Amino acid sequence: MQSGEIVQRAIDYIEDHLTESLTLEGIADVAAMSLPNLYRLFHSLTGHPIKEYIRKRRINEAANCLRNSDLPTIDIGYRCGFESYPTFIKTFKRLTGQTPGQYRRSQVVYSFERMNLKEHVSYLEERALSERFPEVRVIRLNPQQGIGHLFVSEYEEGIETAAIDHFRERLSSHRIDLNGLRLFGWNVDMEGETKPFGYQLLAVGTMEQAEMMKHSELYSLTLAGGLYAVARTPSVAEDSIQNTWNRLFSEWLPRSVFEQGKHEFIEEYALNRDQIVRMKLYLPVERSKLVKPIEIVQLSSLKVMRFRRTGIDCVKQADEASIAWLCRNGLMEDSRIRIFMHCDGGLLDEGSVYEVYIAPPEDFLPSCEEADLQVELEGGMYACLESGAAGTMTGVLERVDRWLDMSTEYRPDPGRFWYASYLPKEEADLGMIRVKCYVPVQIMS
């Protein structure tokens, strides 16, 4: 039996007896290993000493009880396996930074979920990266089977919440409580349909439940799974979700040994009393086949239409303004247009700036009213790096900056700004995002 299977046996036993008195000798007996080996292998494969794993799991259960019940704190401590109330209070404050009473009133979410080593993926990574992004884990998500529901809407905003509410109503007619199921969701392109936006939900339960579905909107569904980078959102607020996606996509991914995979982007929801209380984001990844080189290119200047917005909602506003302009001028489906982007700040700050540039066909003449939108992207020498990242491009820019720091031929040109060019669909791989990031440089004198 492999080490992972042995340690998983220990984890399963801990989970089955989490609220009871546990001894390390008893766990070692169940796992059929010596106590020293249990210490060593458990820490090696989970990253946590076994005693600390038990404490964190018990505090996770206690945190859920505090939020989801009116039980007295002392009862929760004993119910979650702590032998004394002072030990529970001390451990809870050490791990969450708050007393149980403070936690119950706050918006902080403490979470330490049960580990499944079958999903664990071992990979070589820079230590600096894992320390910088401790919240990101790469897992192999096993296929998930359950009850499916596709929600369609005329509007994209708020579609996730509306889909979950609709799904809950349909399941309740079968006396199935959505709160007790693992819930996944992902966007579906409904191109050509009357309602263009779709959101697919999957409630993972027993296959017997799925096969019993008679409702036309409910059916048996299997999510194929695959390799994912997973991160939990600090809160379920929209800006927190956007920030987490940006951190995964534009900061972690370009620095990792992975690239974007071709399977679904997924969101997982934890529900309580009809409310979304926690979310995990799943970025599909695959191991990078090669490292894209940084090239020095000479670009000509280019006239573009600029859509600049500032503030917390700058990304959405700039995108909407550029799309509206394309529609007004009948260029929405024109394959000749080229799209560029530049941003400053974290995209969620009051001082953030986001700019979309559209290079129209050569024969296009802007109207007098729109003449002030036309600007020029400066030509010159640029360091170019192709990537599958999106968002702020932080990771891509950092890699180019490190390369320039070591270069004996080139240095950054502070007189010009960087920008990213989105590749046309026909140049992308199966519709995946591909961009070229251009950082202005000059030859060292």
Describe the structure.
With 445 residues, this protein is α+β, with helices and mostly antiparallel strands. The protein has 13 helices and 18 strands. The strands form two sheets. Strands 1, 2, 3, 4, 5, 6, 7, 8 and 9 form a nine-stranded antiparallel beta sheet that branches. Strands 10, 11, 12, 13, 14, 15, 16, 17 and 18 form a nine-stranded antiparallel beta sheet that branches. Strand 8 and strand 9 form a beta hairpin. The chain is globular, with a radius of gyration of 26 Å. The model has no long low-confidence stretch (mean pLDDT 85).
Helix content: 25-40%
Q: Which residue ranges are poorly predicted, with pLDDT under 50 across at least 5 consecutive positions?
A: none
Radius of gyration from the alpha-carbon trace, in angstroms: 26 Å
Beta strand count: 18
Determine the N-to-C terminus distance: 63 Å
Shape: globular
Number of helices: 13
In short:
This protein has 445 residues and is an alpha+beta fold. The chain has 13 helices and 18 strands.
For this entry, give a set of tags.
445 residues; alpha+beta; nine-stranded antiparallel β-sheet; 13 helices; 18 strands; 34% helix; globular
Blueprint of the fold:
Layout: H1 3-16, H2 24-31, H3 35-46, H4 50-68, H5 73-79, H6 85-96, H7 100-105, H8 127-132, E1 137-141, E2 144-153, H9 159-172, E3 182-189, E4 197-204, H10 207-212, E5 219-223, E6 226-232, H11 238-255, E7 258-260, E8 266-272, E9 275-287, E10 295-299, E11 302-310, H12 314-328, E12 338-344, E13 353-359, E14 374-377, E15 380-387, H13 394-406, E16 410-412, E17 419-422, E18 435-443
Antiparallel strand pairs: 1-6, 2-4, 2-5, 3-4, 3-8, 6-9, 7-9, 8-9, 10-15, 11-13, 11-14, 12-13, 12-17, 15-18, 16-18, 17-18
